[in-house]
Structure formats: C-alpha cells, structure tokens
Amino acid sequence: MISLIWAMDRNWLIGKDNILPWHYKKDLIYFKNHTKGKTVLMGEMTYLSLKGYYKDRPLPFGKIYVASLNNVSFDGCIMVNDLKGFLKETTEDVIVIGGKTVYQIALEYADYLYITWIDKDHEGNVFFPKFDLSMFKVISENQEDELRFTVYERG
Ligand SMILES: NC(=O)c1ccc[n+]([C@@H]2O[C@H](COP(=O)([O-])OP(=O)(O)OC[C@H]3O[C@@H](n4cnc5c(N)ncnc54)[C@H](OP(=O)(O)O)[C@@H]3O)[C@@H](O)[C@H]2O)c1
After folding, report:
1. 62-103 per-position pLDDT tens digit
2. Closest to 4 (Cα-Cα) out of 126, 78, 96, 84
3. What is the CATH number of the domain that holds 110?
4. Strand-pair partners of 114
5. Which of 8, 12, 14, 41 to mutate to test the pocket of ligand 1 (most atoms within 8 A of CB)?
6. Keyword Oxidoreductase, does the record have it (predicted)?
7. What is the DSSP secondary structure assignment for residue 108, as one 8-state letter?
C-alpha cells in the first residue's frame, strides 16, 4: 500500500528552495504521528533537507528508502534508482514523504493521500504538481485553526 503525505497552501505551494515555507507545530506533530517508525520513501533533496533539520539526531522513521538518480548512498538508507519500478513492485506499506519530483511520480500508485491544507498564501518556489483530486474521496477531515487535515482514499 502506498500513501503520500504532504502539506500545501492555497496555491499548492509546498517548498521554498529546499525547506518548508512555514512552521506549523501542529502539522509537524501530525507528520511525526503518521511516520514515526514507519517505512518511508523520499527523494534525495528531501532527505538532505531533513538531515539539515535533524543534524546529528537520527531520522525518526523505520525503514528509509531514498530515491536518487545520482550515484550516492546515505547511512541507514536503501537507495532507489528506479522509482517507478520500486513503486510498481513493492508489497510493503510505504509512506511517501516528498518532495515534488517524488510525489509527482508516486501519485499514480497512491492508495491514500494525507493532505494538510493550509488556508493561507505563503511565499516559496516549489509547488505540488496539479492533478485530478476527484480520483480520490475524502475519508476523514479535521479542521484546526488554518490547517485542515484530510485523508483521501483512491476510488
Ligand atoms: N510541504 C511538504 O509537505 C513537503 C514535503 C517534502 C518536501 N517538500 C519540499 O519539496 C522540495 C523538494 O522537492 P524536489 O522535487 O526538489 O526533490 P525530491 O523529490 O526530494 O528529490 C528528487 C530526487 O529524486 C531523483 N529522481 C528523479 N526521478 C527519479 C527516478 N525515476 N528514480 C529515482 N530517483 C529519481 C532526483 O534525481 P536527480 O537529482 O538526478 O534529478 C532527485 O535526486 C523542497 O522544497 C521541500 O521542502 C515539501
């Protein structure tokens, strides 16, 4: 099963250079609760961004897959060079945690989407690729201040 999790603002903004454009404690807690100890997949840029944030502390996930076309490897991570092939063949429960490039490729394989809608216009330069959200139906929704935590299921 493949799940994608991300936060985006009214304009589908998700990033500013290689960091998040905002700081919402509630969203960070939500993200942690859904990914702690889990098998995650992320792109090389997102991995480097998270390492910058966690510094010497270990990333709080279980198994970590990192997608990259470059010939690099990261401690404690399983590198994925063929992202489509991986997503097609995996039988694991994998949570895709970014960024833009990896979300774009993973969308067609997604069973569940965990989207935090931020009811604001932030500044940044990385946007979630537009796609047809009507292929998914909302199965849970929870508004907290300017954040709306939604879960979608394909179908
Ligand atoms: N708002 C949120 O919830 C959220 C969450 C996560 C990340 N973000 C934001 O997203 C941005 C980063 O996104 P990004 O698109 O730059 O980077 P990314 O998705 O984290 O990483 C992309 C990596 O995937 C590699 N790649 C591309 N196609 C591939 C394939 N077919 N197989 C294997 N690897 C492949 C790329 O290789 P090449 O370098 O060779 O192209 C690159 O190294 C940042 O601004 C970050 O803050 C936001």
Report:
1. 999 999 999 999 999 999 999 999 999 999 999 999 999 999
2. 96
3. 3.40.430.10
4. 5, 151
5. 14
6. yes
7. G
- For residues 65 and 54, give the distance between their C-alpha atoms in angstroms, rounded to a whole number: 17
How far apart CA 114 and CA 32 sit, in angstroms, is 13
The CB density around residue 126, as the number of other CB atoms within 10 Å, is 20
Q: SS3 for 152?
A: strand
Q: Give the position of tokens 């774009």.
A: 104
21-67 tens-digit pLDDT: 999 999 999 999 999 999 999 999 999 999 999 998 999 999 999 99
47 CA from centroid of ligand 1 (Å): 9
Is 126's C-beta closer than 6 angstroms to any atom of ligand 1? yes
Expressed as residue numbers, the domain containing 113 is 2-154
Count of structural domains, the chain: 1
Q: Which atom of ligand 1 is nearest to the CA of 20?
A: 47
